[in-house]
Each structure stands twice: as structure tokens, then as C-alpha cells.
């Protein structure tokens, strides 16, 4: 029998999915409709959400149009004050305090387009959150809920009395009633939670949904530790006769790092200019172009060593000629699983530009490793605090800075700035430099260095904020442990909390790249 109707014309497509960058304009527009009079998200905040915890950012889509969204992050709730505010728990809306090992999901917003309410869109979003909590084996979901109808009753009852009346179905509140119907239990009422939420009188109901499928995992015994062992190479520049000579020296240090069960070994900036000592090219600009011809051998060497010795290698940096015939100073990350990433030097020194014609990169990158997120900032780049702040906001816990300086003044610029970056961003920083000399190599004739590993300055870290340091101007290695768990705890509960206490209302570092 022939179909009377083409049913496809009547079908609708409701999808609950992970948010994408392309959704951001629609979400910003929808938020202004959902929360009139309240400050909406900024685009950079939503981009930060996706960069930090994409799984926790969910949208509802109907026939290709975004009609609802919810945002969340992971935390250990017991690390936050009972009277915390929305700004406290979201790091001012940027969720850079997200803890991937947290036990609790914290929901920071749910909204549904006004034209699509009463279609159980909010219900679907809540169920998606619960499913994610089960998938990640989280203990609970916690929310700081608005009570937007409270302003209608504020003259005759306290927030507690209002919440009690809503709980007993004497008063309807569009948010609190919905949350109660979705299995959330009231924990407490927080004053001053969201400063621009006048309808709620700035109050919020702190509520929790417990995951009955949660399976406790003993990943914490008292105070846990997450150590990362770093081997820093202070490399002696000496005349050599072939690439094999350099390879032999490099392999020796990688072997030392591996024997010490290091997670990372880091070499200095442009230590491969040692190859210039046998190139017999008096012109620095031509010598550097000849040096770039060793790039395939350099990459092959370090990739092989990283895999064979089971250690992640920051391969110092090397001059590389790319397709545009420009030469860049590039630091490579050679992971022990055989994968490779690279960071271009962003700030080129006058010396590099004058003698070698080096071009600048323009991207700050943060790399995933089996020991967490790291960044690489080559020599001069560590002297620009904006770069370290951007990398920290992108999740970096350690910044490696291969450097090459010819005198003590230049070295101290790198050292002091690396220590400052460790304090102001509550991260670890590592500097690795060259020593010795190359008498017949123009612009690389003398070196000065004292390499080191630096920590924030607080009680749980090394007394002087120095995990370890080499002796100046001697070829040697430094091996030290940094603890990412202590770093995480101190960001939450340290004597000072530079990341949490930033005044986003007064200033901000804006990164212009996607």
C-alpha cells in the first residue's frame, strides 16, 4: 500500500552532544535571552572551557539549532570553603582550576532557549551530565542553583524559609523545583554566590546528586604524591668532527637520565650549533643554513633515543629551515611513545636576528605527556611573563626553558625570570644551558650557564624555591623530582594563591591565537 505522507517532512532531530567552538556565538546569544540583566559569558571563557574540559560542555541541538547548553568542571569539593562563590569555584568563569582527577562534577550553568522550554531540554542536559558522571566514575554532581523567584517573596521570608516552601511545593521556583525533581538534595544556602543575580538576592542553593554507581578507588592514601623526575643536562660545547660525535655525547646523557628512571631529560638551546665547529664556514648566516641540513638526522636521533631509553626528551632547540625558506629556532618534544611535537621560539633576540636572520614563531603551545601538560619556552621567551601566564591557563604544570647565554648577565636574566614565572603562576620551571666554548665558531665562541629546577615559594616546596641547581660552567647533569600533587594542592590551599586571586575584573592577558 502506498504511503500517504512522507514522514521525513515531519521528523525532528533532537541531539545532545559535546559543545564545539562553532557553537560559541549561538550560546552567547542564547545566554542574553536566558539571563537578562546578568553578565553573559565572554567568548574567551567558553573557549577556555573547551580547552580545559571539553567533555563537560554539552549542548542540545534541535534541527541544527543550539537550543540549550550546560557547563561543568571537575573538582574535589572538600578543598573549597563551605561559603564559596561562583567566582571561587570557576576561577572567574575560566575553569582553569579544573582537576581532571577530581571526585565531584560541579555544574556552573544550565540554560534553555526561551522559545524551546517545556520540551524537557533541561531534563536531557541533566541526564547527559549524570551519564558523564557515571562514565567518569565520579562521586557526585554539585551545583550552586539560583532561586530566581525569591525576589518576589524576599520581603516576607528569609532565603531558608523560601527554600523550605519550594521544597514542600508551596511555592514554585523554576530552577530549584526543577533541581529537586531531578534528584538533587539540598546541602546549604550560600550568600553572595553570584553578584549580579539580583533576582535570587545573590543567594544560591548548594545541591548534590549522588552517583549510586560510584566505585571508590584507592587513589589517595592520606596525602598522595605524583612525582615527576627531571634530568637537566648542562652541556659542554666543544669542537667535534662529525654528527656522530654529537650523537655519542647526546646518547651518553640520555642513558644517564634513563638509568635514573627520569621522566624527562632536557638539553639546552641551540646546542646543535656545536656542529658548526667542523663546517668550516666563516659566514654565520651561511653556517646556520648548513646547520639546518642536519635536521633530519637530529630528529631521527632523538626519536630513536626517546623510544629506546623510555624517556621524554626536550631536545634543546635546533635551527630549522622550513618551506618558506625562513629559518626558525625550534624546540622539539620527543615523547617516549615515539610521537613528536614542536615549539617555535616566539621572541628572537637582536643577536639571533643580526647574525643568523632567525624568524619568529607566533604560537604558544601546551603539550600532553604521560606526566601531565607541559610547555616549552626557549630562552628569551621566559623573560616575557605573558607567555607563561597563557601556558599556565592552558594547563601547563611545568615550563621547560632551554637557553644559551654567553655571559653571567644574560644567564641571570633567564634564571631570575624563570624563578619569577614559577612563583607568579604556581608552576615548576626548568632551565638548561650550555657551557664551554667553540673558539673557531663565529657568534658561539663563549658560553655561561648554571642550570636549575625551580618551584613556587611556599612551605611544601623547597626552602628557597630551588629544587636543584648545577655548579656554574661545568658539564654535568641535575636530577630532581617535582610533585604535581603538591602543586595542585597549593594552588587550592597555599599561603598565597596567585592564580585564584587574579583580578580578572581589572586586567587580563589576551591570547590572540586560536
Automatic annotation (TrEMBL):
<dbReference type="GO" id="GO:0016747">
    <property type="term" value="F:acyltransferase activity, transferring groups other than amino-acyl groups"/>
</dbReference>
<keyword id="KW-0378">Hydrolase</keyword>
<dbReference type="Pfam" id="PF00795">
    <property type="entry name" value="CN_hydrolase"/>
</dbReference>
<feature type="domain" description="CN hydrolase">
    <location>
        <begin position="228"/>
        <end position="484"/>
    </location>
</feature>
<dbReference type="GO" id="GO:0016787">
    <property type="term" value="F:hydrolase activity"/>
</dbReference>
<dbReference type="InterPro" id="IPR001110">
    <property type="entry name" value="UPF0012_CS"/>
</dbReference>
<dbReference type="InterPro" id="IPR000182">
    <property type="entry name" value="GNAT_dom"/>
</dbReference>
<dbReference type="InterPro" id="IPR036526">
    <property type="entry name" value="C-N_Hydrolase_sf"/>
</dbReference>
<dbReference type="Pfam" id="PF00583">
    <property type="entry name" value="Acetyltransf_1"/>
</dbReference>
<dbReference type="InterPro" id="IPR003010">
    <property type="entry name" value="C-N_Hydrolase"/>
</dbReference>
<feature type="domain" description="N-acetyltransferase">
    <location>
        <begin position="14"/>
        <end position="212"/>
    </location>
</feature>
<protein>
    <submittedName>
        <fullName>Putative amidohydrolase</fullName>
    </submittedName>
</protein>
<comment type="similarity">
    <text>Belongs to the carbon-nitrogen hydrolase superfamily. NIT1/NIT2 family.</text>
</comment>
<dbReference type="InterPro" id="IPR016181">
    <property type="entry name" value="Acyl_CoA_acyltransferase"/>
</dbReference>
Amino acid at each position: 500500500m502506498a504511503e500517504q505522507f512522507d514522514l521525513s517532512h515531519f521528523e525532528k532531530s533532537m541531539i545532545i552532544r559535546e559543545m564545539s567552538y562553532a557553537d560559541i556565538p549561538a550560546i552567547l546569544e542564547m545566554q542574553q535571552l536566558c539571563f537578562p540583566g546578568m553578565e553573559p559569558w565572554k567568548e574567551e571563557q567558553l573557549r577556555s572551557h573547551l580547552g580545559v574540559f571539553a567533555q563537560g560542555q554539552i549542548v542540545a541541538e534541535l534541527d541544527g539549532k543550539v537550543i540549550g547548553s550546560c557547563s561543568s568542571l571537575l573538582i574535589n569539593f572538600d578543598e573549597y570553603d563551605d561559603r564559596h562563590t561562583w567566582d571561587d569555584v570557576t576561577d572567574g568563569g575560566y575553569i582553569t582550576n579544573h582537576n581532571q582527577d577530581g571526585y565531584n562534577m560541579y555544574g556552573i550553568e544550565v540554560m534553555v532557549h526561551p522559545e524551546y522550554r517545556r520540551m524537557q531540554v533541561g531534563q536531557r542536559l541533566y541526564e547527559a551530565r549524570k551519564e558523564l558522571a557515571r562514565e567518569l566514575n565520579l562521586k557526585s554532581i554539585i551545583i550552586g542553583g539560583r532561586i530566581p523567584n525569591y525576589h518576589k517573596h524576599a520581603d516576607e521570608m528569609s532565603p531558608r524559609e523560601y527554600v523550605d516552601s519550594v521544597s514542600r511545593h508551596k511555592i514554585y521556583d523554576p530552577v530549584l523545583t526543577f533541581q529537586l525533581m531531578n534528584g538533587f538534595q539540598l546541602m546549604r544556602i550560600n550568600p553572595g554566590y553570584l553578584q549580579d543575580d539580583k533576582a535570587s538576592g545573590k543567594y544560591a542553593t548548594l545541591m548534590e546528586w549522588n552517583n549510586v554507581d560510584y566505585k571508590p578507588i584507592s587513589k589517595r592514601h592520606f596525602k598522595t604524591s605524583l612525582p615527576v623526575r627531571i634530568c637537566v643536562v648542562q652541556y659542554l660545547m666543544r669542537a667535534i668532527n662529525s654528527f656522530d660525535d654529537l650523537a655519542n655525547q647526546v646518547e651518553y646523557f640520555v642513558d644517564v637520565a634513563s638509568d635514573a628512571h627520569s621522566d624527562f631529560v632536557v638539553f639546552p638551546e641551540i646546542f646543535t650549533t656545536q656542529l658548526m665547529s667542523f663546517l668550516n664556514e666563516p659566514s654565520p648566516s651561511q653556517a646556520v643554513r648548513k646547520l639546518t641540513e642536519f635536521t633530519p638526522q637530529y630528529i631521527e636521533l632523538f626519536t630513536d633515543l626517546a623510544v629506546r631509553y623510555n624517556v621524554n626528551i626536550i631536545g634543546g632547540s635546533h635551527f630549522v629551515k622550513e618551506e618558506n625558506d625562513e629559518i626558525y629556532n625550534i624546540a622539539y618534544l620527543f615523547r617516549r611513545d615515539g610521537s613528536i611535537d614542536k615549539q617555535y621560539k616566539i621572541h628572537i633576540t637582536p643577536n639571533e636576528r643580526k647574525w643568523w636572520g632567525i624568524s619568529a614563531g607566533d604560537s604558544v603551545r601546551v603539550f600532553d605527556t604521560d606526566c601531565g601538560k607541559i610547555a616549552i619556552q626557549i630562552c628569551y621567551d621566559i623573560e616575557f611573563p605573558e607567555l607563561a601566564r597563557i601556558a599556565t591557563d592552558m594547563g601547563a604544570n611545568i615550563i621547560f626553558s632551554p637557553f644559551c647565554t654567553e655571559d653571567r648577565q644574560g644567564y641571570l636574566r633567564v634564571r631570575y625570570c624563570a624563578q619569577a614565572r614559577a612563583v607568579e603562576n604556581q608552576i615548576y620551571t626548568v632551565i638548561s644551558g650550555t657551557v664551554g666554548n667553540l673558539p673557531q665558531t663565529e657568534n658561539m665562541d663563549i658560553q655561561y650557564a648554571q642550570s636549575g629546577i625551580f618551584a613556587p615559594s611556599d612551605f611544601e616546596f623547597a626552602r628557597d624555591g630551588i629544587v636543584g641547581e648545577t655548579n656554574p660552567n661545568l658539564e654535568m647533569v641535575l636530577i630532581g623530582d617535582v610533585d604535581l600533587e603538591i602543586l595542585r594542592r597549593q594552588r587550592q590551599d597555599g599561603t598565597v594563591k596567585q592564580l585564584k586571586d587574579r583580578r580578572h575584573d581589572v586586567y587580563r592577558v589576551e591570547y590572540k591565537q586560536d
